[in-house]
Structure formats: structure tokens, C-alpha cells
Amino acid sequence: MDVKVKERLCQVCGESKQIGRNFCAFTCESCKAFFRRTALKTIQLHCASNGKCEINVQTRRLCPKCRLKKCFDIGMRIDFIRSETDNKIRRQLMIEKKMKKLLQDMSAYSGDSSDNDSNANSGQEFPESDGNSSAIDDMDDWIEHTCDDSQGSSRQVMDIKYCLSGKSDILTEIRQKAQKLAVIPMCKTLTDYNGINQLESRRIDELLVATNVF
Amino acid sequence: MDVKVKERLCQVCGESKQIGRNFCAFTCESCKAFFRRTALKTIQLHCASNGKCEINVQTRRLCPKCRLKKCFDIGMRIDFIRSETDNKIRRQLMIEKKMKKLLQDMSAYSGDSSDNDSNANSGQEFPESDGNSSAIDDMDDWIEHTCDDSQGSSRQVMDIKYCLSGKSDILTEIRQKAQKLAVIPMCKTLTDYNGINQLESRRIDELLVATNVF
DNA sequence: AACAGGTCACGAAGGTCA
DNA sequence: TGACCTTCGTGACCTGTT
């Protein structure tokens, strides 16, 4: 029972909400975020009380130095924070993944069945651009004309565009696909249909597209 | 006896449950899944302890690099993992099998018990509507016989039908395309609508993929 | 029965923004 | 700073084939 209670309280500040195992210790969300942000920083922290501050939910934000010290004391491990290069790679992979999906969607709606999976080496880097800005412009057009942004739904597309600045190879491909796009239905025909949620109406869209009727 | 005990423990992590010969070594289910997922990946794994982590049930998830190393060390073989193309083919075959069964169900519902179709090419056909006695009628029949409306669940299908009324040419076209694509169970999947769950929409995806449209 | 792959809820990382 | 979110790896459980 003692252990159970322990596991339900943040070992750093005593918080009782959102407790989980973070960086090898049971902590709350805020101490987790604090440790992630602070532990790797090299700048010297300063404590006004000679490093003897008590850390609880109320005081935890008053002295970062003592809070961080307690984090280490209760066993939070710095080596469980992913390295910046690791994170960079992950972000890159995520972007490529989204890109691929975007291209698939475009292919589907333009009826372009020539989209081949033969691209075996997915971990490859995109070639650098020579400053082709018109591809970006084209993408802007495409975003503007094909996305219903009434609910911020094209935000991810914008992110991808931003991240891809200077990667004209794939942008050229996008432009080609985009040109084939006769019409629009990217953002769901039956969205507000009573009872059918977004996922389902998306499936219906796909079925209709599969028939090549619309 | 020693050997028997050995065979009842995962050679990677020492787990004692669900042991079997997996990829040429005696392992638990989780190490099997881990090896299947990880062994073929090309991305570089990183170990914080210079590749000297001890792997047991508690620690196995902490360092993928050392876990994978141990997998190889105890003799798990990467060539026992099926290739992606192999898996693709298998999935394709499974889908065709399922579609065949669905087509049979379909035939049963449409009262098309006579197997002597004049079209000899595929063996499985959409029930032919005589003349243009109205595709809508056919659809009505089909809806009536395949939808469980005990909870108003076929309402969406009916609405779709209504939207298509007066567009019998489109309906005919859909049927023709459907014949060509050998996709019947479009609405069959929606029949069980009670909220389309994840599994079901997954089926729809599979069917679409099976048509080679995308 | 044995052994491949598939599924999905869940835990624990990082990211975002008021 | 911290509440909330997304993403991805994990492992128990499942399906299908031999």
C-alpha cells in the first residue's frame, strides 16, 4: 500500500495528478517537462537558500536549482532524454512520412495510379534545392485551393511546406500531381452528415473515388 | 531436465511465459515481436552504456540496441523474417480469399442461385438487372436483404441511395465499374453500421487496395 | 501444434502554446 | 511553466498457414 501511494504521488513535488514513469522515476507532467527542459542545460543555476529549498507543488517553481537537484536525487536519469541529433532524425522521418501520405492522397484524388512503392530506400535525404521558389508558390496555390481551412485542417500541410523549403525535387513531384488534380474533394463530401463521423465519411469518399464516378 | 528448463525460458530476457521457437531460437512473445520489428530496420540504435546492458524481463525495454544484439548472439536469424514483398503477396491472397467468400454471401442474398452465367470469365458476377427495370429497385432489394435495420443502422445507406435517385446512369456505371473491379461488398461493410469500428474500416481499406485502384 | 505475421491498447518519449 | 497533444515502441492476444 505504501508503494501504491508512492506511485500515485510525484516523487519530486508531491503532485497527485498525471503521475507516470518519466525518465525512470514517478513524477507529474510538469516535473517531467521541467526535467526534460532543464537537465541538459549547461548554464549554472543559482539558489538563494544554499540549495536547501523544500520542493512541493507550491514551491516547485521558485527554485529551479533545488528542483533539478531533487529530480536527480530521486533517480531521474539524464540518459533517458533523447539527444538532439536523435530528435532531429525523428522529426525528419516524420516529415517524410507525412509527405508520402500527402502524395498518396493527391495521387488517389487525381486518379494517378502510377504511384509506385518501388522507392525502397525511404531513409534517404532529399537533395538540396538551388533556390526554386516557384515550387513553393505552386504549393501555396494548391493548399489554398484544395484545403478547407475552416478548422485549421491545412495547418499540417503548411508545416510540411515550411519544412520542405529548399527541397525542390519532391516539390516538383507535388506540382506535377497537383496539376493533375481536376477537382477538390480532399476535405470530405459528407462531413456534416448526421451520424457519420469524419473517418467514416472519408471512407465513403474513398469508395466513391474507387468507382471513378466523381 | 536442464535442457527442458532452458527451453522454457526466453533465451533473450529470461521470461518464462509463452516460450516458443521463434526465428530459430527459444524466446518469449515480446522478444519475438521485438526482433520481427527491429531486426530489419536500418536506423542506427544508440546505447548509453557502451553496449553492455544486461537484458532481463525488467530491463529488456530500456535498451533496444543491446536487446537486439543479444537476439543475434543467441542465434535468432534475420533470414527467417519474411520479406515485405512476401508479406504483401500473402496479404493479397488473403484478401482475395475473403472477397470470394463475400461474393458468395452476396450471391446468396441476391437470390442468384443459378451458377450458369453466360459470362464465363470470372465465375463471380454481380446479379444482372434485366433491361433498365431501374437500378434503384435493385438497390432497394439489395438494401432490404443485406441490411440489419434493427437499430436504424441502415439509414445512412438509404440516404445515400436517396441522394443517388434520378442518377440511375451513375448507378449503372457504378455497377459496371464494380463488376470490372470485382468489388461488391462496398455497402456490405457499411451494413453493420453502428459506428464503423477500426477493424471494419480497415477492411474497407483492404478491399480498396485489392482493386488496385491506388 | 508450431510458428510466421497482424492488431491494438497503452506507456513514455517529444512538441505546442496560452 | 504546465496542461494537453502527437508519435512511436511494446507486448498480450489474435489469425492464418504448414
From TrEMBL, chains A, B:
InterPro entries per UniProt: Nuclear_hormone_rcpt_NR1, Znf_hrmn_rcpt, Znf_NHR/GATA
Domain Nuclear receptor: 7-83
Identification of the protein by name: Nuclear receptor domain-containing protein
Keyword tags: DNA-binding, Metal-binding, Nucleus, Receptor, Transcription, Transcription regulation, Zinc, Zinc-finger
Region (Disordered): 109-134
Bias kind Low complexity: ranges: 109-123
GO MF: nuclear receptor activity; RNA polymerase II cis-regulatory region sequence-specific DNA binding; zinc ion binding
Any matching Pfam family: zf-C4
Top-rank taxon: Eukaryota
Cross-referenced SUPFAM superfamilies: Glucocorticoid receptor-like (DNA-binding domain) (SSF57716)
Gene3D superfamilies, sorted: Erythroid Transcription Factor GATA-1, subunit A
GO annotation, biological process: cell differentiation; negative regulation of transcription by RNA polymerase II; positive regulation of transcription by RNA polymerase II
Keyword rRNA-binding: no
